[in-house]
Amino acid sequence: MAKAFPEGFLWGGATAANQLEGGFHEGNKGLNIADVLPGGKERLQVLRNPGFQFEIEEGKSYPNHEAIDFYHRYKEDIALFAEMGFKAFRLSIAWSRIFPNGDELEPNEEGLAFYDKVIDELLKYDIEPVVTISHYEMPLHLVKEYGGWRNREAITFFERYTEAIFTRYQGKVKYWMTFNEINSGLMMPIMGLGFAIKKEEDRYQPTFQAFHHQFVASAKAVKRCHEIMPEAQIGCMIIYAPFYVYDSNPENVMDALEKDERFNYFCTDVQVRGEYPAYIQRYFREHNIELEIEDGDLDIIKEGTVDYISFSYYMSKTEKKVDVNGGQADGNILLGGVKNPFLKASDWGWEIDPVGLRISLNRLYSRYQMPLFIVENGLGAYDKVEEDGSIQDDYRIDYLREHMKQMLEAVEDGVDLMGYTSWGCIDLVSASTGEMSKRYGFIYVDKHDDGSGTLERKRKKSFYWYKDTIAANGANLANQ
């Protein structure tokens, strides 16, 4: 195991605008996808089932509307991040703050000015802003009137949006990424691709057509970023979950390989290598998928390859196609598969696999030889405020410590690792369930699933542990 992380390692935390900002109608912001997603565990069914109408319904809760009110409390929160010693803070820009409907010709000055203030506050503390351009918050007007990323016009609207933010924040933001967890569209196109599958249609054709539009848009953004900010770096961002084979049955091995390629590598292959891989071409043929590709699209994708690969890591996935018992047990609630008998799971059914992070880093680096950036990792758990006001979240410290030790092992393996931003460094609204009770943060926020709470911030035990780890650049991990 390496003794410490490389010099200049980007320690920090990660968030998304729709999950922490609130102020959903302030500053001339338009509605976005997250604003119409109901809170509670029903959200996961909404995201997976066909036919969602993208409407606010009476009688349902919408926790993203207020979230944790970062919109008004960003100075307080950034001061806490600085106290922990953050070198970087991953945030997203809400597209509908900059273009409220998404199809305007000119950006909204109030939205641009808000992010001026947030970015300047980060820079005041020497914290590098790491900006996700699109993080599950497409303007609702583009969803309802245009069909989201099904529609090629979305490329033009995204181009206009990126031009506005690149021009405005040049010289201030060095690290960008285009689409958050782009491959999530395979599971939940509502958040990532901006449309719901219709009940009567096959999901494959519109999903991959929407991906194509995003690939073109991403490549154009990469090229324009390099033109406006030659010193900046811009990456792709994926969910990565190493696929394990349940046993040595060759049919299971082949099945896991095919699923692994489609989920973990397809989007990255296109954005890193600049072309559609052969395995996906076969998949298209076998599923009668015919993409509408305009002249010049493939050249744009080839010319707009990314500078680094960023990814979220929460769990591994175990696959079994052939089941001798005639049934299949559920594995991870989010990704499916079968239960891994060697792993424990979180309160939300996400299997905990620190070694899987080292495996992920090695597989990605072996395939691409490109700098890697872990921009999401963490434990969603129930936290209890003790009578003395403290939050003793040793389970979170244990989770993070074991994952970070595996990161050090990967560095020793030769992986070029840029940084680590822990997901939900401050408690925020869960993307998959819309809950506040699923807490990830080092900072506790007094806000609850029923909407009650004072929004007071409290430092958890993990706050001080992470502060010490950053100060030591990870050198303290070996003795823990």
TrEMBL record:
Which Gene Ontology CC terms are recorded? cytosol
Which keywords does this Swiss-Prot/TrEMBL entry list?
Glycosidase, Hydrolase
InterPro entries annotated for this entry? GH, GH_1_N_CS, Glyco_hydro_1, Glyco_hydro_1_AS
Gene3D superfamilies, A to Z: Glycosidases
For molecular function, the Gene Ontology terms on record are: beta-glucosidase activity
Q: What biological-process GO terms show up in the record?
A: carbohydrate catabolic process
Keyword Hydrolase listed? The answer is: yes
Q: Entry's Pfam families?
A: Glyco_hydro_1
Catalytic residue positions? 376
Q: Its family?
A: Belongs to the glycosyl hydrolase 1 family.
Q: What name does the UniProt record give this protein?
A: Aryl-phospho-beta-D-glucosidase BglH
Q: Which organism is it from?
A: Oceanobacillus oncorhynchi
Q: Quick one: which gene encodes this?
A: bglH_1
